[in-house]
Amino acid sequence: MRMNDLKPVSGSRPAGRRVGRGIGSALGKTCGKGHKGQKARAGGFHKVGFEGGQMPLQRRLPKTGFTSHKKSFSVEVRLSELARLPLPFAVSLEGLKAANLIPKTAKHVKIIDSGIISVPVAVSGLKVTPGAKAKIEAAGGKIEV
Questions:
Q1: Which fold has domain 72-144?
Q2: DSSP state of 36
Q3: C-beta separation of 115 from 135 below 8 A
Q4: Which helix (H) or strand (E) holds 131?
Q5: Could you tell me which of 136, 93, 99, 89 has the C-alpha nearest to residue 114?
Q6: Rounded to whole angstroms, how far apart are CA atoms 83 and 86?
Q7: Which of the residues 23, 41, 103, 135 could staple to 28 if both were Cys, CB 3.0 to 4.6 A apart?
Q8: What sign for the dihedral angle of Cα 85, 89, 90, 96?
Q9: Which element (helix H / strand E) includes 58?
């Protein structure tokens, strides 16, 4: 058996109605399309959503963009911002909020490798990028997960 030998089972695919073959065929003359008009012509259909020239619904409604619900909860803190904090300072979620370095609504904080840090800091309970982790440990700090 080959792909070009495959055929549907006999009787499973009925032949389509032959239109325009006389009044006895039930689909003669106008072929079931009625008299005149756009839908009786060849290619006489319009695009999806067309409302006869009226402003379509998708253009009448106001545009509403995408607003991330997670954006306001995630904050990035630079190493240079940590270096300006008064010592001793515990770098944690509550400590950063108390220092007004992050908003009160922040739930997730990540320390990123931007700038230099020369003071030892103890980071606890925050995410840290690999580059920032290397610089903190090189300055004598420690990171607790």
A1: Ribosomal Protein L15; Chain: K; domain 2 (3.100.10)
A2: S
A3: no
A4: helix 130-138
A5: 136
A6: 8
A7: 23
A8: negative
A9: helix 57-60
pLDDT confidence tier of residue 70, bands split at 50, 70 and 90: confident
Q: What is the DSSP letter of 54?
A: B
Reference 138, options 27, 121, 127, 129; nearest CA is: 121
Decide: 108 and 127 in contact? Cβ < 8 Å: yes
Distance CA 10, CA 2 (A): 18
Neighbouring CB atoms inside 10 A of 114's CB total: 15
Dist CA 11 CA 26 (whole Å): 22
Global pTM value: 0.53
Where would I find the beta strands (DSSP E) of 37-106?
74-78, 90-91
Mean pLDDT, residues 93-105: 91
